[in-house]
Amino acid sequence: GAGVSQSPSNKVTEKGKDVELRCDPISGHTALYWYRQRLGQGLEFLIYFQGNSAPDKSGLPSDRFSAERTGESVSTLTIQRTQQEDSAVYLCASSPDRVKVYEQYFGPGTRLTVT
Amino acid sequence: TQLLEQSPQFLSIQEGENLTVYCNSSSVFSSLQWYRQEPGEGPVLLVTVVTGGEVKKLKRLTFQFGDARKDSSLHITAAQPGDTGLYLCAGASTRRGSTLGRLYFGRGTQLTVWP
């Protein structure tokens, strides 16, 4: 079946511009996560959506970052007024349900380059 | 503060050698997972361990969960170049204040196996 998909796969933007990254989770998965991965680094948690519960936004690095999810479908991560330090791969993952939340399925990521 | 500490951070070995990577914490986890990430792709789940003392084998890979559920190890026998990648451990924390369903990732061990 279809896995997690993300778009665009690559994004180059100028400093100060806004960008929007999209994640399509696996159909039926209730949980959705966004992570940031800088070159050669591990995963940095950004935000977690679980069904209709309030999202865990504790990992968002600044108020320039925001994310939305409509129901249990698509999510968008928006970065306003991008800075060079925002350059990274942004990974999205989804999980089947609250019981099996440890089974995270990752998308291929969006590589963001801020010039 | 990193909840899960992985060591070593980098490991470079010759084909055929054995290796062990470690994932340690002062916190207790209800479950712990290992992922492998190859360049340009998202992490892929290798195994989940949930019981203290549990040992799981996946071909040449052996995963162990500590008795106290605070640490884990991954042992690879007769490493091959195809084992090259970033190995990440991740845990579902039982610590007060942690979010149900959220996984906490270590920074990863970058393994390179030379032919």
Describe the structure.
The complex is a heterodimer of chains A (115) and B (115). With 115 residues, chain A is an all-beta fold. Chain A has a single domain (5-109), classed as Immunoglobulin-like. In chain A, 0% of the residues lie in helices and 45% in strands. Chain A has strands spanning 5-7, 10-13, 19-24, 31-37, 44-50, 65-69, 75-79, 88-95, 105-106, 110-114. Chain A is globular. Chain B is mostly beta strands and 115 residues long. Chain B has one domain: Immunoglobulins (Immunoglobulin-like). Chain B has no helices and eleven strands. In chain B, the strands form two sheets. In chain B, strands 2, 4, 5, 9, 10 and 11 form a six-stranded mixed β-sheet that branches. Chain B has a five-stranded antiparallel β-sheet with strand order 1-3-8-7-6, with no helix packed on it. Chain B is globular and about 45 Å long.
Quickly count the domains of chain A: 1
Question: What is the CATH top level name of chain A?
Answer: Mainly Beta
Instruction: Write down the overall mean pLDDT of chain B.
Output: 91
Provide the low-confidence segments of chain A as ranges.
Answer: none
What is the succession of H and E elements of chain A? EEEEEEEEEE
In what range is the share of β-strand residues of chain B?
Answer: over 45%
CATH-wise, what's the superfamily of chain B? Immunoglobulins
Give the biggest sheet of chain A: 6 strands, mixed
Rounded to the nearest angstrom, the radius of gyration of chain B is 14 Å
What is the number of helices of chain B? 0
Proportion in β-strands of chain A = over 45%
Q: What helical percentage do the residues of chain A reach?
A: under 10%
- Following the backbone from N to C, one meets helices and strands of chain B in this order, namely EEEEEEEEEEE
The secondary-structure class of chain B comes to mainly beta
CATH topology of chain B, what is it called?
Answer: Immunoglobulin-like
Query: Which structural class should the secondary elements of chain A be placed in?
Result: mainly beta
